Amino acid sequence: MSELDFAAIGIGPFHLSLAALLEKEKSFKALFFDLKKEFEWHSELMFADADMQTSFMKDLVTPVDPTNANSFLNYLVSNDLFYSFMNTGRRTISRREFERYGRWVAQRLNSLRFSHRVESVRFDGSQFEVGTSQGTFRSKDICVGTGPVPRVPEVARNLLSDRVFHAKSEHLKNLRLDGLDVAIIGGGQTGIEVFRSCFSGLWGSARSVTLVSRRDNLEPLDESPFTNEYFAPGYVESFHHLPETQKRAIVAKQKLASDGNTPAYLQSLYNDLYRIKNVEDDRRPIRILPMRNLEYMAKRDSGYELQLANRYASATEALFADVVILCTGFETRLPHAIEPLLNQLDLDETRLPKLEKNFRVKWNGPATNRIYAVNFGRYSHGIAEPQTSLMAWRSATIINDLFGRTVYPVSPSRPSFLHYDRLEESF
Ligand SMILES: Cc1cc2nc3c(=O)[nH]c(=O)nc-3n(C[C@H](O)[C@H](O)[C@H](O)COP(=O)(O)OP(=O)(O)OC[C@H]3O[C@@H](n4cnc5c(N)ncnc54)[C@H](O)[C@@H]3O)c2cc1C
């Protein structure tokens, strides 16, 4: 059985960043496990026109270690892409290119183990035993980074099939929509990307395409500079100190800073609709239904009936579709593998781990054995937690905590222009 200092479950971008930044500590024995064969980034949703919502400068390492060889800039230079990339004038890159960059980094690191599904994690009193599909590893500390899982609305759960499915699934790969009525549920970024792919014929020529959204409109991502201060270390540090009772309401208000639709994408979607409807005279029903909640779904002789509550018209509506694609987002859940540890963890009312400032999970085991978790802190650390913006900073924070010293400087030394904390001169 291998003995490790650190075992990490999952190799999404967040753990890839941690692995890249840990490379500096040569004698530290860390392994990262993923069930996939190689690094992938939401490959089921990899549309050709999908761009990142975050600047390429906020890559896996640069914000805390700009000289690190695993930067996006080094990816460009090493692949002889620098000059032509500069000519694109891009501030954000396509999701495909981010995945290629991630794969390039993954190939450079020795600490990654793909095709290793983590099946169980136990604590034997002094070490964690991480059972994988390819053997068991013992480790002093662990980190959980298994990512969010697709959220399926209650009303659709019993109907899941190759005709009713969450967008993040294998079904999009073999989808054929010729002559069919399609309903897309969810008006976030994935919803509008699927909507556009449906009406533009990526999966054949659908008879009708309807996008149903709970939101008031197709709402844009708020990328303005003061809003972007939520994605700075100083704000996260200050947010963590707030009373729990306040945090959820603040995060809910900040929704469009993280879950809004890319403004440039909205523009090109609008322009596509204009062209298709008003220049090419496409007669198919292609429509967007905002302010609708999906209340009920039932199988009919052919296809499905969807019952929608229209908040604008205060009416209940029926919609029929042959195929229903759920773009209903993701939810955070601890992986099954962690179950043997569950009764030792301090969980909140939603069964998620309570996190300390340095991303340690609160638990009743020895303080010398640490459990960290990434992408579990939306309500403890704030709206930046599920985003890539601060992944390098969070990795550096965890590394500093692991080593008990400043491996990477992370504490902001310059104040923000926005002062949320109590003024010192207050009384
Ligand atoms: C389509 C899409 C686009 C996004 N675009 C952006 C963006 O532009 N900007 C931004 O800031 N954020 C974006 N996000 C949000 C966020 O950055 C991503 O969700 C990101 O992938 C989260 O990284 P992660 O490492 O937490 O999890 P994931 O990327 O989900 O990775 C988790 C990994 O854990 C593995 N795993 C799970 N269980 C096990 C197990 N038992 N054993 C071994 N391995 C396991 C999985 O195979 C997976 O590879 C996007 C999200 C989605 C869904």
The SSE string, one letter per element, is: EHEHHHEEEEEEEHEHHHHHEEEEEEEH
Roughly how much helix do the residues carry, as a percent range?
A: 10-25%
- In terms of DSSP E residues, the strand content is 15-25%
CATH class of the largest domain: Alpha Beta
Which class of secondary structure composition applies to the elements?
alpha/beta
Rg (CA only)? 23 Å
Instruction: Determine the CATH topology of the largest domain.
Output: FAD/NAD(P)-binding domain
Would you identify the CATH H-level superfamily of the largest domain? FAD/NAD(P)-binding domain
CATH architecture of the largest domain: 3-Layer(bba) Sandwich
| Euclidean distance between termini CA atoms | 59 Å
The coarse silhouette is: globular
- State the helix count: 11
Task: Give the total of domains.
Answer: 2
What's the average pLDDT? 96
Hetero groups in this structure are: flavin-adenine dinucleotide
Low-pLDDT regions: none
What is the tally of beta strands?
Answer: 17
Q: What assembly state would you assign to the polypeptide chains in this entry?
A: single chain
Largest sheet: 7 strands, mixed
Quick structural summary:
The chain has helices spanning 13-22, 72-78, 82-88, 95-108, 189-199, 225-228, 233-240, 244-253, 255-259, 263-279, 391-403; strands at residues 2-9, 30-33, 112-113, 118-123, 128-132, 135-144, 149-150, 164-166, 181-185, 208-212, 286-289, 292-299, 304-310, 315-321, 323-326, 330-331, 371-373. It is α/β, with parallel strands linked by helices and 427 residues long. The strands form 4 sheets. Strands 1, 2, 3, 4, 5, 6 and 17 form a 7-stranded mixed beta sheet that branches. Strands 8-15-9-10-11 form a 5-stranded parallel beta sheet, with helices on one face.
